[in-house]
Amino acid sequence: MTTSFIHPALILIFGGLLLPFVKGPFRKPYLFIIPLLTLLNVVYLSWHPGVYGVVNFMGGDWTLTFGRVDRLSMVFGFIMALMAVIGTVYGLHVNDDLQHIAAWFYVAGSLGVIYCGDYLVLFLFWELMAFASTFLIWFNKDKGSLAAGYRYLLVHTFGGVVLLLGFVLRYQATGDLSFVLLSEENTHLYTWLIMAGLMLNAAVPPLHSWLPDAYSKATVTGAVFMCAFTTKTAIYTLARGFAGFDILIVLGVVMAIYGIIYALIENDIRRLLGWEIVSQVGYMVAGVGIGTALAINGTCAHAFAHILYKGLLFMAAGAVIHATGKSKFTDLGGLYKKMPLTFFFLVIGGISVSAFPFFSGFVTKSMIIAAGFEEHLLIPAFLLTMVSVGTFLVAGLRLPYLIFFGDTRCSDETWSKAEDPPWNMQLAMLAASFFCLLVGSYTPFLYNMLPYTDVAFHPYGSYHLSETMQLLAFTAIIFIFLKDKIGARATISLDLDWFYRRGGRLFLWLAKNPVQWLDTCWGSAYKVVGLYPLMTTARFWSWFDWHGIDGIVDGSARCVRAIGRRVSLTLQRGQIQQTIYISITFAAILLVSYVWL
Amino acid sequence: MIIQIIDYLKERPKTVRVSSYIGIAIMLIWSVLAVDNHHAHTWAEKYIPGFWSLFSLGAAVVLIFFARWFGKSGIMTREDYYDN
Q1: ipTM for the complex shown
Q2: Which of A76, A299, A350, A528 is least surrounded, with the fewest CB atoms within 10 Å of its CB?
Q3: Residues of A with CB below 8 A from B63's CB?
Q4: d(CA A297, nearest CA chain B) in Å
Q5: CA distances (Å), B8 to each of A82, A244, A333, A359, B60, in order?
């Protein structure tokens, strides 16, 4: 049976290009329909697995595959398209077409990566993602966004080049461009280069600093998109290419701990959430590293759940920033009276990420940890459980407490501006909350989509319930006693981006001082030694040009002018019909002679 | 409605505290006595009653104090550090 294949990314790209022409009452429905069509297309594709969109390129030397639809790409494609709908609804009130176009192109890049079957197509969409998402930072007019956007772009360009280098070396060695699982036994330089390129997008330390930096500077709606797509697309590519690589377990656990420590001392809402993405993606990286069927299922499930609850948290954080204009805990606090619905949605996101029973994290995170225990990786499994405690501390307790409870640190202006966001933002948060609850309460919804169908996992056993409730209850008790130790402080936290932010300054200093001095010296020497002979030579050539070259050129010009005058006297007698007649005749003669010959 | 519920609870801190403690105690008793821990992965989980309670107490304290020490060791710095 042949299935008509339309790439879901194309719908978003063309939809985005047409958006500026859609005006008035049609605009909001249009904004909703385009991502919805994409979602329907993704669902349609998931009913028809197979390989589509195979194109021969460069005379058949390379085969490009745009549409590899299998169970792994299906689950990621579905959640990306779903998040595109929710994110666009969240941004419906934004009148700037360019923001929507950038967001859609960004999602298109993500979907392109998910359905691609070779490195060339992967790279094409990979870069589309990086460029489109940079604009989501630049559109924010806040101080520091421009610089943050440039840093983001530079880091991702670097990652892209590493990836390019990796797959070109692989092509040179094997003649193969297909994007498939690489062998852990037989590694080469290119294996590590490809892995590093992909890991940069997954924000694996030490390649992670771009994430909190960029996400805290993006526009309110831009951050909602960014938190979903870049890292989870990278997780998909790692799961596709590097499942079972042991080093990823170590890196994943490091990442999970690193992120949660920084989140505990962070003062900016969206930076805190960014650090928590680093931490949560750590679970997925570790899951990919474990590489068993249960672990890969857990990784996919956790990525799915993560996109929803992290999107919800970023939406709620965005609502606070949208209303108050403040993003630091030191400027907020006690806001539950002014923004009760936002508080409610933030708590839903917080308890989902903290793995409360009946919410999404409970049925997904535990799969990865269980897979770790099953493989007798006790230390990673216990460390990841420790990070779960930290996650609840950060997202379930510290975050809502510092925004909505305690003494208010708001100025009068902030307090009076604070209110629940417009209907479309609330609707998007409601939809995300619904899916958080659905995933957690009705497990077949997500479990039936997972890539490996032959592994069963039952999260609602009494042992797992008791374990989770003990973890949550005692973490909450500790928080009540020690909450002032991790309170709001007006600081920023130094991280590895120090090297390129301060490193850039060192470069500027070098450029200003020693290099400038060298340039001045060189300039003076050149004036004395180089300039005089140069002027003499120049004078000779000037004379030659005037007398030699111009003579010939002017002579020819005069000749052409004379011929032209003669022609115009003969043909152009000032009557337009005659001129047209002559031109058409000439063209007809040319045409006839061409056909005849 | 959300505001009323929160305010209602805030006016009765003692009741909230006591009922939370009772809830946690019931949950602990259930965990220790009734939960089948045949699915436990390690020795510690099987034979230490309320293992995960102790684990989470330890983990939360370690994380909070480590983060605090780490931040104070020079990582947390003034907000305009990168501005000049």
Answers
A1: 0.93
A2: A528
A3: 260-261, 264, 386, 389-390, 393
A4: 20
A5: 38, 52, 19, 26, 29
Say if B52 is an interface residue toward chain A (CB within 8 Å).
yes
CA atoms within 13 A on the CB side of A419: 6
Note the Cα A526 to chain centre separation in Å.
49
Residue of A nearest to B43 (CA): A378
Contact residues, chain A, for B1 at CB < 8 Å: 340
Contact A470 B75 (CB under 8 A): no
Say whether residue B12 is in contact with chain A using an 8 A CB cutoff: no
Contact A359, B29 (CB under 8 A): no
Q: Is the CB of B27 less than 8 angstroms away from the CB of A469?
A: yes
- C-alpha radius of gyration, chain A, whole number: 31
Instruction: Calculate the CA A321 to chain-centre distance.
Output: 21
Question: Which amino acid makes up residue A532?
Answer: Y
Contact A265 B82 (CB under 8 A): no
**Contact (CB, 8 A) for A13 and A125:** no
pLDDT in tens, A556-569: 777 777 777 776 66
Amino acid at A57: F
Which residues from A are below 8 Å from B57, CB to CB? 474, 477-478
SS3 A495: coil
Separation between Cα atoms, residue A32 and residue A552, nearest integer Å: 68
Residues paired with A268 in a beta bridge: A328
pLDDT in tens, B27-57: 999 988 888 877 778 888 888 888 999 999 9
**Residue at B62: amino acid letter:** V
Q: Is the peptide bond before A206 cis (omega within 30 degrees of 0)?
A: yes
- For residue A578, is pLDDT > 90? no
Query: Which of A347, A467, A481, A505 is the best mutation test for B, with the most CBs of B within 10 A?
Result: A467
For the entire predicted model, the pTM comes to 0.85
* Rounded distance between C-alpha atoms, residue A79 and residue A433, angstroms: 14
- With tokens 């999107």, the residue in question is A311
Average pLDDT over residues A454-469: 91
